[in-house]
């Protein structure tokens, strides 16, 4: 009998602990999702802003479809004058994988002037991109360009570093099939973002400030 009660109590305890963890995770997700209100239409943004495009995967020669959507959106914002310059932030941790260069040359081939672009070679994550945008490139206000599901977390993290951020969704055909899966991923990623902000940050590579974005 005691053995039965012991197992029952353990089951109840484990269930309670699981419910508590799930509740905390969902609460953190809700906190981050509040920043979805800062996702706006381009016409709602005053002209002359700095855009930030987050890396999203490349082949040896071109961006993957999701990243193409982000870059195409950035070009439209440049053409319309909403943004004047773009920070292309991505992963370049190995010699044969260079997101910022692929992003840069994709836009150049599509008619963007190189003087409107700044590459960030150490934006290995959303957190690191936001931290470097403020600490290395001196960005105080930015227009973040990525999928709608990713924008609340990106805005949350950039604002945690003092960057006033608005978001423009880059959703295209390539993003349509990822919405459900990406939202589930964002539950975990949102919890990681809050952990990074309040407990332990990521090991962002920093260095000397670069004023190419804020000196024009």
Number of strands: 5
SS-derived structural category: alpha/beta
Estimated helix fraction: 40-55%
Task: Give the end-to-end Cα distance, rounded to a whole number of Å.
Answer: 78 Å
Identify the overall geometry.
globular
Write the layout of secondary structure elements.
Elements: H1 2-33, E1 49-54, H2 65-80, E2 83-89, H3 99-109, E3 117-120, H4 126-135, E4 141-146, H5 151-160, E5 164-169, H6 173-176, H7 179-198
Parallel strand pairs: 1-2, 1-4, 2-3, 4-5
Write a structural description.
It is globular and about 70 Å long. 39% of the residues are buried. The chain is of the alpha/beta class and 216 residues long. Helix 1 packs across helix 7, helix 4 (126-135) packs parallel to helix 5 and helix 5 (151-160) runs parallel beside helix 7. The chain contains 7 helices and 5 strands; from the N terminus they run αβαβαβαβαβαα. Helix 2 (65-80) links the parallel strand 1 and strand 2.
Provide a short characterization of the protein structure:
The chain is 48% helix and 13% strand. The protein has seven helices and five strands. Strand 1 (49-54), helix 2 (65-80) and strand 2 (83-89) form a beta-alpha-beta unit.
List keywords for this structure.
alpha/beta, 216 residues, 48% helix, five-stranded parallel sheet
